[in-house]
Amino acid sequence: MAADVWGLEPVRGRGDLEIARLAELQRGVVHRRQLLGAGLTPAAVKHRLATGSLHSLYPSVYLFGRPRLEPLAAATAAVIHFAGRGVLSHRTAALLWELHEAAERPVEITVVGMDARSRPGLVVHRCARLRREEVRRHSRLAVTAPARTLVDLAGLLEPEELEAAYAIALRRRLVTPSQVTEALHSNGPAKGAARLRALATQDGSPRLTRSAYERMLLSLLRRAQLPAPAVNAQLLGMEVDLLWPRERLVVEFDGFGYHSSRRSFERDRLRDQRLVAAGYRVIRVTARQLDRTPEAVLARVAAALAT
Q1: Taking the model in full, what pTM does it have?
Q2: Where are the domains of the chain?
Q3: Judging by DSSP bridges, how do beta strands 135-138 and 141-144 pair with one another?
Q4: Which end of the chain is more exposed for a tag (fewer CB within 10 A), N or C?
Q5: Taking the CB of residue 178, how many other CB atoms lie within 10 A of it?
């Protein structure tokens, strides 16, 4: 379990300097045991809660010296709260492994052998067992291993999102297909397991997409039974978003946070000119178009493929 790879930071000194050291290592979060170990009395803890130098997050888990949570502080507080019996999992694990875009809250955690319940800001999952190889340490926190994280995500994500998460894990060498297959076998029947098993046993590489909008367009293309493009393909020394080599067609996504400056705008225009000069057609698609008129975007792509 988590205690095999993670433990509460040991107290090495006394007083506020030691408490500050612990808080710095734990993103501002401290456990009551650590405060008492550093010399505070129960009355002193109560006084600091009353005066605002400590803020309660969970029973016996506090935020020290600051009113707001820093990045990953909520996840740290959850791990400290379960004290070796809880492992960050599902979307929170995906956030840590950078497999899927997810919010930091609610925190998702898996516990074994205890009756814990979800609460605002915390989603608790329970399982019968968690093997040692399914737990890793990441960012000083106990988290499910990438293969187990994909198994958990399989029941939560849309097919295109799951394929993208699996592709990212493969590209970053966080998993191998055999590791994913083994994780599926070890955890038995589960929601979405068949989709993940199909990805792990398929011929060829899964598609690696950059955004929900890429996934949206890929889904539209599949439903319309149009030819599948190469995703994030190399062309003329550049990476293009979608490429149909035979039809010499390129689709680029515009206005997705990557083109916010004049310099970016000019660079993209130069890319288009190079592609057109080499005989490729370029269609630029915006987030607004896909949000409001996805069928029109699909029609333009279909017409270009048919030409």
Answers
A1: 0.70
A2: 2-70, 76-201, 212-306
A3: antiparallel
A4: C
A5: 11
